Amino acid sequence: MLQFLYEIFPYALAFTAPILITAIGGLLSERSGVVNIGLEGLMIIGSFAGAITLWAITKNAQPGDPVTIWMILAGLLASVVAGGLFSLLHAYASISLNANQIISGTAINMLAAALALFLSELITGSERLAVVTGVARVDVPGLSKIPFIGELFFTKTYFTTYMVLAIVFVVWFVLMKKPFGLRLRACGEYPQAAESMGINVIRMRYIGVFLSGCFAGLGGGILVLTYNGEFTGAVNGLGFLALATLIFGQWKPWKVVGASFFFGFMRTMSTMARVNDGLKSLGLPQELYKALPYFLTLVALVIFSKNTVGPKALGETFDSGKR
Amino acid sequence: MDYVIELLNITKEFPGIKANDNVTLKLRPQTIHAVLGENGAGKSTLMSILFGLYQPDAGQIRVRGKDVKITNPNIANDFGIGMVHQHFKLVEEFTVVENIILGLEPKNKYGTIDIKSAAEKVAEISEKYGLRVDPYAKIKDISVGMQQRVEILKMLYRDAEILIFDEPTAVLTPQEIEELLSIMKGLIKKGKSILLITHKLAEIKQVADECSVLQKGRYIGTVKVEETDERQMAEMMVGRNVSFHVDKAEAKPKEVILEVRNLTLQGNTKKPIINDVSFDVHAGEIFCVAGIEGNGQTELVELITGLKKQTGGTVKLLGSEIQNLSIRKRTEAGIGHIPEDRHKHGLVLDYTVEQNIALQTYYKEPLSKYGIINKKEVRKLSEELIERFDVRSGKGSETTARSMSGGNQQKAIIAREVSRSPMLLIAVQPTRGLDVGAIEYIHKELISERDSGKAVLLVSLELDEVLDVADRIAVMYEGEIMDTVLSKDTNENELGLMMTGSRKAGDK
Question: Which of A144, B6, B53, B273 is deepest in the core (most CB within 10 A)?
């Protein structure tokens, strides 16, 4: 059993990181009052930007030339910027033009997938874009030697996982402790009240959506530069999973961490079932493992959604005259 | 300094309506100045201009003798003008102190919000002005009266010197109103000046020093409150004689329309919310359920109309049991309902007047045929009812309900319910938050229903209304009916005693 956990944990952690950072992005958008169903599309844009940037940097390199950490960081930075800029479309449509936020988000998803593939074809001549060398898996020096915990959390890890956790901490701190966070949350709960206190609701919501784009883009970048290793024009529903995580985590940063790890763990288990000797020896049909994460997700959502209360003004366009 | 605020010859026009026509208003320091007018008279527009939400088309604003331009609420705040909105602008999930500091958060040396020092400052201010609040309570957990104190604290926290109260008592219980009025008096003693927007004459008489009256956007005049009386102010406001007393003939009760027997509703608490209630309502009478808010009146009506399910007892309408029927079946059996919360249960606020008017009958001929709504017929009905019930609004049938004044929203509901001529009309606090003109209208409408042989079940918290309008009165206390009396045989004292559960009529 312990051996099984040791095997599965590093993968689960790696899988969790892109979901978590995307969900945290979604949290910022939704806490400001804007539904962001476009997370999937923003992740795609992020993964494309990350992959193409690394491709451009390394395309003239000779075999054997090292891929430095700076190149990878440049790729991730491109993901962040691309995701952020792309999300402004959603912000403009749903905040400035008062469009329906679900429809605008859906449009983002459709546009992103098509645009990324088109650009990939145009620039590289291929719809698939392999990343030669991505982020390396390393044992954290020192910490990985701690019994049990070291094996679970600090072996064969990507540095991006810790980066994501650091960002979550910062988001939590700003959201719950800083004046900015109080104002952002007020915009999601009762924007008219925020406005009457001199807060610029439109600006706060733009910031919320923009940050969600940056983080979802980063999620896509991490995905493609870590275990996916290839841009294919899709992120396989991870963006929607992040959205489910957000609801499951009741729009609270630490609960979202727990929820995304739950989803990450379940998904990893279903992938591992094919190769893991321990799971194979149980002799259960593969389909069961495949279905398990979705089934458990459904069960969990049914149980927890009963007392799920999102931000009050979530999804409402802002009308300052509304009583 | 003679005046802290001077609004001189303000004119503001909206498409199709002159909301303010050459209005002048001057507020003396450390006084309470009431702004009186019916719904739609232009009070709110005038205050919005002062608060920077609208720009006047013509006229001057002076603050402490200086000409100023107020282009947004932040500028108004900078001049020390604060407003308590009629619909509280409070974030329910936040604590009291978080709501107060929002937008002006004190920070500690790490750049985080210093909740502790904020709470101390809030406590200090509430101490000074006698506004009891718990700084760490969440808004959703405190009473409406306390929420209003939070609104006041928001302004005081920002050092506002001139306070605008927009219909502050509309949502309060009688006890909370008393408390608010004494808070207001305390505020002016401590150097603040107050503009009080209202249409409740008794409150003006009680606290205001001066009163300016608006009528349909026009400025009628300013009077010293101590030199006038309620009747005179009402006449200025409405432009004609107003009868405070309701004229009605003796009731001629006939057969029983509604028969309630042993009705019980068990809630989560040990004591039932409705405890074994029985009464009859006859054709040709107005039967009133009186009592202090929260003694089961709301639930009683919900059981009769079908919004809640009883745990025991029967309700008969015209002799047949209805307590297990659906709401629509009950409506069709002959119940008209003017609900307590007209925004939640009375209207679909984002629908137009005609859509709201069609809500109870849209599925029947002539409004629809073969399941398709005939818009022409809907419009015809709506125009007819708007005319008959004098529902006033900007765009007639096409006005959205949300944009109408409370009085006209209520008229639209009454039009819809009364026009179906139900045998039983249930009206729950039908005059809450309305001005004298509208109240007079609604009382007349209830009485004319009675005189046409219908049964009327009225639920009211206002003793004046209970005594004036009702023929028979049942007083509810903690889910039980204490006693039923004829209105001509009782008085405010007796009813007041029964409402507090201290005595049943008869055991003298």
Answer: B273
